[in-house]
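Lab notebook, bench 4. Continuing the backlog of folding jobs that were queued last week. Each job is logged with the same field layout so the records can be merged later without manual cleanup. Today's entry covers Inorganic pyrophosphatase, a 161-residue chain. Filled in by technician R.K.

JOB TYPE: sequence-to-structure
TARGET: Inorganic pyrophosphatase
LENGTH: 161
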Amino acid sequence: MIFDVVVEIPAGSRNKYEIDHNTGEVRLDRMLFTATRFPHDYGFVKNTLSLDGDPLDALVMLDEPTFPGCVVSCRVIGMFRMTDEKGGDDKLLCVPAGDIRKASLQDIDNVPSYELDEIKHFFEVYKTLEPGKEVHGGAWVGHEAAEEEIKNSYNRYNGSH
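JOB STATUS: finished
OUTPUT FIELD FOLLOWS
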């Protein structure tokens, strides 16, 4: 399954950008209150609706950061299931669809455990100092469960538009 991810936040940034889905403008939502930085490019899968009412979130493992608004053709290798103050807030872990350097990454088990731990740690602490925000632990699932959530998110989107 290949799909487009719209990058909102490049890897290494503390700035939390969001793309306004009505105007297409990139807006600075806030700077992260913690000293953490996004571990990979972060954005959303186009034309999806996740359980929190937003498009389905995605991290894209790239060798260099891109920029807000960049569209990357991706395939999913896993998903981090977590919740925040609004409820379910799953995060896909993706690689560029045509990148031969990432060809060995087919499922979550192919990603080094330390890298998965870094990503998990980021999502567990990145909202810690923000008033009214909270994150509850999560767990990694493989690409099959992630693809199922993508399909469900497409269906939710199509049912609401």
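OBSERVATION: Helices lie at 113-125, 143-160.
SIGNED: R.K.
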